[in-house]
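hey can u run this one w/ uridine-5'-diphosphate-xylopyranose bound, need the structure tokens asap thx
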Amino acid sequence: MRIAVVGTGYVGLVTGTCFAEVGIDVTCIDIDERKIENLRQGILPIYEPGLEEMVERNAQKGRLSFSTDLSEVVESCGCEAVFIAVGTPPGEDGSADLKYVLAVARHIGRSLKGYTVVVTKSTVPVGTARKVRQAIAEELEARGEQIDFDVASNPEFLKEGAAIDDFLKPDRIVVGVESERAEQVMSRLYKPFLMNGHPLIFMDIPSAEMTKYAANAMLATKISFMNDVANLCEIMGADVNMVRRGIGSDARIGNKFIYPGIGYGGSCFPKDVKALIKTASENGYAMQVLQAVEQVNERQKSVLFDKVVAHFNGDLAGRTFAVWGLSFKPKTDDMREAPSLVIIERLLEAGARVKAYDPVAMAEARHSLGDRVEYGKDEYEALIDADALLLVTEWPEFRSPNFSVVGKLMKEKVVFDGRNIYDGAELAAKGFAYHGIGVAQQVPQLDSTSATE
Ligand code: UDX
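ok here u go:
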């Protein structure tokens, strides 16, 4: 089988490479010549564990190629499906901007030679596949051609940092189709990924489009709900870590996505929650739960900063804060909507000095933070003379640091744990003041000279 994937961003590149991995001939297309040239040399525009080796292996086998020429590929590749995986950036009003998706659809319409399934893979509002179909049909009409095609909607559920595994072993694959023929093409394409017995679910196109938003909105709701519960736990003297374990063992609730923290970020949740609220309001309906989900998330991004202010009695000017982790979550360099940005801006506004370290996201972080922040060469360097450590992203290497070294490097032994990865009582026994999310704060149990020995 042959397919083309338009857009070599996160979703497009993972999709194309994973299809190649199971033996399908894939051409990945992008208008950005530099990106394509780099990909041909094995240089990737994003960081995703395992992807670079997979791109290289499949390119060498000749199953994965890269091109800037959409027309040429669609005209000559004999593709059974073309996946549209270009960006849908949020417009000023929060709705997804479809200009790239529809431009690609028109381009496909101008180049189509034979029956093809045109699949939207980008996260697009309900009703987009219909617009894609119309755009292609208009171009075909302008050409005076009668070529059969179908549109389909195939939303993506990849998590950054685990995208390859998610694609190769999906919980489910959702495909919206409107013809038997399209269903057959999509079935054949996805057959190799169904080995673990998880379902390929066919449905109508609007339902498939809605599924993506409903999934992300539900997950965002779980997180905001737990953040709300965590804040109340603190007030009432309960421990949210216990509450989480207590409720998570109920299979109806589940133990995933109930970790409180500093708010969700990334390229999906914030954008999709806003977009769904917008779609609803445009159609005369108010998504009240989601409005609250978003408000709680905005508030949660300030929770760690508020704890810093409270601990230092508002006196932050001239103090130094070490920040561990910048990306919106571990195993990615993605800084989109990262809570770290909000926390760091607040610290800087208060006149503090920030020394940050992230295993992979520092180059990305520089785009928005520039030289206003100092960047450590490792997590320990970022701690030198710090008045406090803020754990912002729970990278595995931050989980068990040598606290005796940590304590010696810092000016004051204070930890603000935005992800509840440390044991507060254990840190207190080592002489640290500890602040977590939804848990009791801990005062140092020993004086700082004996504590870290
Ligand atoms: C998400 C969805 O999981 C994925 O299915 C969809 O395709 C795209 O959006 P991603 O944005 O890569 O994936 O990250 P995810 O691991 O879902 O985390 C999203 C945010 O929620 C992160 O900021 C993370 O820190 C936060 N989170 C997650 C919590 O605060 N608590 C949790 O319990 C889980």
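Residues 303-451 form a domain with the Rossmann fold fold (CATH 3.40.50.720). anyway lmk if its weird
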